């Protein structure tokens, strides 16, 4: 059967392409995809403990059985629907043009809000003493958008805030430009602060968006935080036996 495999960030450069289709036997598990690439390049096997996996844009375990035509994404650590009745619709999107922060903030604030907490993530001019020229963001876009929408919804339910705007930019960003904007509108400031901090911290760990930093003397993919344990593939080698279902 044919399986489509997607690569992002440093993995894309290691493999030399962003996607390809491979042949696997019927009934193969996600683990078989990992073995396929680990056998081709030992550098790939060294990365396995830090990867997360997705099947058809949903985080997955290595023991999941694949079906013909499934899409498997191999995700290095990241740098990234209709509303319920009676709740405001969150403003969640991925863009490639400059983020219009003031317009988004103005749209979100309503007379009943006692607070609008804003996180404006901007491109700085240095990283650990090296002068930064610009950044380039890429994403597993369809999955990233789904994860961002889920974050906004959970923030409302968890912290009791009224509405969330969450916008992330992709492509080349110059120094001083906004890479991610979060606006949380709420009746109370405490809930708004907590929700805003939780969203950016969780986004940086779980949403499949990667950042490449360009310096005067070269370029590197930014080190990401480890995926949370519940979505990270179990540590070990690709040759491990999959867990029984």
Overall residue-averaged pLDDT value: 86
Written as H for each helix and E for each strand, in order along the chain, the element string is EHEHHEEEEHEEEHEEEHEE
* Structural class by helix and strand composition: alpha+beta
Shape: globular
- CATH homology-level superfamily of the largest domain: Molybdopterin biosynthesis MoaE subunit
Give the tally of structural domains.
2
According to CATH, the fold-level topology of the largest domain is Aldehyde Oxidoreductase, domain 3
Number of distinct helices = 6
How many strand elements? 14
Which residues form runs of ≥5 with pLDDT under 50? 80-87, 234-245
Report the biggest beta sheet as strand number plus sense, adding barrel if it closes. 5 strands, mixed
Q: Distance N terminus to C terminus?
A: 21 Å
Placed side by side, the strands forming the largest sheet appear as 2-1-5-3-4
User: What CATH architecture of the largest domain do you see?
Assistant: Alpha-Beta Complex
């Amino acid at each position: 059967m044919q399986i489509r495999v997607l690569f992002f960030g440093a993995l894309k450069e290691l493999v030399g392409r962003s996607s390809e289709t491979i042949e696997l036997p019927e009934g193969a598990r996600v683990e078989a995809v990992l073995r396929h690439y680990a056998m081709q390049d030992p550098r790939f096997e060294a990365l396995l403990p830090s990867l997360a996996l997705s099947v058809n844009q949903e985080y997955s375990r290595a023991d999941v059985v694949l079906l013909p035509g499934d899409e498997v994404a191999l995700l290095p650590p990241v740098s990234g629907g209709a509303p319920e009745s009676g709740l405001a619709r969150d403003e969640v999107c991925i863009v490639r043009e400059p983020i219009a922060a003031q317009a988004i903030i103005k749209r979100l604030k309503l007379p009943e809000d006692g607070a609008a907490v804003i996180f404006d993530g901007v491109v700085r001019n240095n990283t650990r003493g090296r002068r930064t020229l610009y950044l380039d963001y890429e994403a597993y876009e369809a999955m990233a958008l789904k994860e961002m929408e889920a974050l906004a919804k959970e923030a409302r339910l968890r912290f009791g805030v009224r509405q969330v705007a969450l916008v992330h930019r992709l492509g080349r960003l110059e120094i001083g430009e906004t890479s991610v904007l979060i606006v949380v509108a709420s009746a109370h400031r405490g809930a708004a602060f907590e929700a805003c901090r939780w969203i950016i911290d969780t986004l940086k760990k779980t949403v499949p968006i990667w950042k490449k930093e360009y310096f005067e003397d070269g370029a590197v993919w930014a080190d990401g935080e480890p995926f949370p344990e519940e979505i990270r593939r179990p540590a070990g080698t690709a040759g491990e036996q999959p867990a029984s279902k």
